[in-house]
Amino acid sequence: MSDSELLWVLGHKVRPLVTDASYGMIEVTTPPKVAGPPPHYHKRESEFFFIIKGQLDVMSNGHWQPYAAGSFVELPPHTTHTFINHSGEDVVWITGWRPKGFERFFVDFGIPISQPGAREQSVSAAVLQRVVDNVESYGMYIDASPADATD
After folding, report:
1. Which PANTHER family match (predicted)?
2. 143: how many CB neighbours lie within 10 A of its CB?
3. CA–CA distance from 112 to each of 2, 21, 116 (Å)?
4. Cα Rg for the chain, rounded, in angstroms?
């Protein structure tokens, strides 16, 4: 895959991966001190995280746990979750969904890495507002209950 196929999505570098029709999958590089989206859940998709390099802190139903390279996390439908890279190095990980479909979120909101200022554009007010306005149409539901705070 060429660099032109890499995307910046909400501050994370994303590489879409080709899969069969049963699931979707992407490779993510999360820079140091970058967090994921607000705590959220999917009603129909199960999701997994497989950590390749570094350590990713993952919140699942209000409980935070660090996951090192080689760790696998399974998140069934209706599991409120998010993540953060608390370290000083990039974290590289694979995430996927079954059934397939949610991966289109990353293509639809991604800024090609070849565009000047792509990382900054990916977290611009305009992009964030588009995400907020459309996130539920992708099957992602924000859960802002106090137990899910990232601190």
Report:
1. PUTATIVE (AFU_ORTHOLOGUE AFUA_8G07350)-RELATED
2. 17
3. 11, 24, 9
4. 14
Cβ proximity of 92 and 53 under 8 Å: yes
Smallest CA-to-CA distance from 27 within 92, 78, 75 is with 92
130 falls within a domain:
yes
Report yes or no on 83 lying in a domain. yes
> Can you tell me the distance from the alpha carbon of 30 to that of 5, in angstroms, rounded to the nearest whole number?
17
- CB 40 within 8 Å of CB 77: no
Residue type, 94: I
pLDDT in tens, the chain (151 residues): 445 489 999 999 999 999 999 999 999 999 999 999 999 999 999 999 999 999 999 999 999 999 999 999 999 999 999 999 999 999 999 999 999 999 999 999 999 999 999 999 999 999 999 999 999 999 999 987 655 444 4
Q: Check residue 139 and give its pLDDT.
A: 93
Number of structural domains found in the chain: 1
Do 34 and 92 contact (CB within 8 A), yes or no?
A: no
Instruction: Note whether residue 146 is domain-resident.
Output: no
Residues 6+ apart with CB under 8 A from 109: 9, 10, 122, 127, 130, 131
Amino acid at 137: S
